[in-house]
């Protein structure tokens, strides 16, 4: 009998591939349709399942959705990202916890993974940056999986964001992702992509 | 009339969410079933559609699948990752091109984005590292979308990998991802995850 605790081995259908990749687009404008906290919790529960190195799970997520918090966040956002961030139902601050390894005795109990990072802040921070960015990729595709649209952004002042939102936790922000239901009448044309032979090698 | 060039706005069904997230697992052993170059090209075509900041697309991908190339790669892989890498039909080297910005006049034609990076190697490298790691996240979920299993790994010597595989291109490796059809009889139990209240905030 197949183990039903494991993933089905078939590829997704065309509609799912379209939703995730082929017809999915970064949203720049939004429908007047809220994103509930329940949906944000579903989004988190999918995102957190994606793999990270030694189950480090360094990614941290601040879901900014009240007008007061949004106003505060807008003081850190570049001019080109203002309007879409102001109007997005939610903006997620993607961050990492530089002390993520304190959780490893629970998250990765079969090895002393915490000791790989204690006293090696530069190594720990690189690992946290890499793995939390993987988790940002999972979050973008988890959002699309739930019928949401995402608008990832690099144009913001991460230091100021840390001061305003993360001072108590010590987390470090790396990017912002607007979340909502996109107004596709305002989606830009798809930009060109690099061909396989420009960005990949077979060895 | 709805624009059929844009993504359907519905959430994926349970089977798709299972395949991508809820029942998906990192593979540690593999079925004796090849991954064709055609499948690797499909994987690339999905991966490259994921969003990157200003369409930078810094990610580069070396698909190692011949015995000779695999032997060479194994000289860079940590002992704990040897067997699963040796037996994987394909191991993808995830890398970035530090000179990615040379393509921006074509990839992001409506602004002089190339000038943001020229003469600022540290800023360019951080952006390439972040965005190519997002692309690695897309690749892992694109693999799952195509019915493949993925096994991402950090335990390898990136400097030696660069010398052996990337000397001609100047690309820089950041992680490895085994690809194939997993032998789920050998999948480990799911490790714990952080709860919403440990890794997320509502603001």
From TrEMBL, chains A, B:
- Please tell me which top-level EC class this enzyme sits in: oxidoreductase
Kindly list the cofactors needed. Answer: FMN
Q: Which domain of life is it from?
A: Bacteria
Keyword presence, Oxidoreductase: yes
Does the keyword section mention Signal?
no
Q: What's the EC number here?
A: 1.-.-.-
* CDD domains, per the entry: RutE-like
A Pfam family of this chain: Nitroreductase
Keyword list (alphabetical) reads: Flavoprotein, FMN, NAD, NADP, Oxidoreductase
An example of a GO molecular function for this protein is: oxidoreductase activity
* Residue ranges annotated for the Nitroreductase domain, each copy included: 27-181
Q: Which PANTHER family match?
A: MALONIC SEMIALDEHYDE REDUCTASE RUTE-RELATED (PTHR43543:SF1)
Write out the similarity annotation: Belongs to the nitroreductase family. HadB/RutE subfamily.
Please give the name of this protein: Putative NADH dehydrogenase/NAD(P)H nitroreductase SAMN02745194_04749
Q: Which organism is it from?
A: Muricoccus roseus
Question: Species lineage, top-down?
Answer: Bacteria, Pseudomonadati, Pseudomonadota, Alphaproteobacteria, Acetobacterales
């Amino acid at each position: 009998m197949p183990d039903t605790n494991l993933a089905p081995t078939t590829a997704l259908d065309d509609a799912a591939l379209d939703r995730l990749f082929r017809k999915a687009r970064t949203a720049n404008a939004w429908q007047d349709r809220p994103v509930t906290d329940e949906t944000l919790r579903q989004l988190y529960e999918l995102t957190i399942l994606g793999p990270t190195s030694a189950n480090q799970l360094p990614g941290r997520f601040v879901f900014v959705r009240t007008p007061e918090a949004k106003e505060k966040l807008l003081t850190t956002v570049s001019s080109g990202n203002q309007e879409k961030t102001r109007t997005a139902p939610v903006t997620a601050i993607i961050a990492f916890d530089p002390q993520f390894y304190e959780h490893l005795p629970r998250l990765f109990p079969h090895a002393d993974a915490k000791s790989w990072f204690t006293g090696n802040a530069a190594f720990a921070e690189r690992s946290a940056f890499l793995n939390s960015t993987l988790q940002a990729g999972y979050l973008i595709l988890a959002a699309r999986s739930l019928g949401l649209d995402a608008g990832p952004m690099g144009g913001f002042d991460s230091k100021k964001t840390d001061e305003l939102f993360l001072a108590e936790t010590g987390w470090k922000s790396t990017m912002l992702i607007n979340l909502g239901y996109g107004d596709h009448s305002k989606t830009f044309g798809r930009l060109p992509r690099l061909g396989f032979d420009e960005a990949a090698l077979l060895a």
